Amino acid sequence: GDSVTQMEGPVTLSEEAFLTINCTYTATGYPSLFWYVQYPGEGLQLLLKATKADDKGSNKGFEATYRKETTSFHLEKGSVQVSDSAVYFCALSVPGSSNTGKLIFGQGTTLQVKP
Amino acid sequence: EAGVTQSPTHLIKTRGQQATLRCSPISGHTSVYWYQQALGLGLQFLLWYDEGEERNRGNFPPRFSGRQFPNYSSELNVNALELEDSALYLCASSLVGSGSYEQYFGPGTRLTVT
After folding, report:
1. Smallest Cα–Cα separation from A49: which of A61, A38, A39, A58?
2. Alpha-carbon span B4 to B103, nearest angstrom
3. What pLDDT, in 10s, does the model give residues B73-85?
4. If you average pLDDT over every residue of chain B, what do you get?
5. Per-residue pLDDT, B100
6. Does A88 touch chain B (CB under 8 A)?
7. CA torsion sign, B21 to B58 to A106 to B51?
8. Which residues of B touch A89 (CB under 8 A)?
9. From CA A40, how far away is CA A28, in angstroms rounded?
């Protein structure tokens, strides 16, 4: 079935360090891929998305490239800030399948950035 | 533009009672989705409504139900509450429910069952 696997957290980095959060997926069709961020006590915010292979989503310095050959959608940022501390969720949606309409989420990765 | 709104922010109920959660989508969005975020279980899809109809349902018992109104707002009802229903319930909306359109989330309703 359709699923998403994220790297285990928590991830602790110093300010201005490079960030990578790994995400791999399994999908029966042609998924759209998303990264969401959840700040403490809040709902989810869409960070970026990609809808087809080799698409690169980017927003607020974060980037992720849809890699069909490796079924991956890793999140990267060149220089993290303390304000980036949050939980990051990778998710997929597969149009035209039994999972149509639903987002399937990874388990989430907690990022803590220290000054 | 106003985002997705949910009410109430917090809800405390006793086991066996019923809970009603409400959601208003972004203006122009016709699809509404409900998710449960329980501690240790991650984010689980509950229900999808589009144009007033239930389009898809997650692996939850029938005591989780809902509806969508003509103005596209939605209600989630949880009957016969159990302790394990304690969770953050998130509502999301999108333009259409094709799967390619991103979903925008509200702040959630924190349901506590005692």
Report:
1. A58
2. 10
3. 999 999 999 999 9
4. 93
5. 59
6. no
7. negative
8. 43
9. 33
Each residue's pLDDT tens digit, A67-79: 999 999 999 999 9
- DSSP 8-state symbol, B26: P
**Distance between CA atoms of A77 and A19, rounded to whole angstroms?**
5
> What is the torsional sign of CA B80, B82, B85, B86?
positive
Strand partners, A48: A35
**B98: Cβ contacts below 8 Å, ≥ 6 apart:** A95, A100, A101
Which of B5, B10, B32, B43 is the best residue to mutate to test the A interface, defined by the most A CB atoms within 10 Å of its own CB? B43
SS3 A83: helix
* pLDDT tens per residue across span B49-80: 999 999 999 999 999 999 999 999 999 999 99
Q: What is the mean pLDDT of residues A48-65?
A: 96
Spatial contact of A77 and A58, defined as CB atoms under 8 Å apart: no
Confidence (pLDDT) at B99: 54
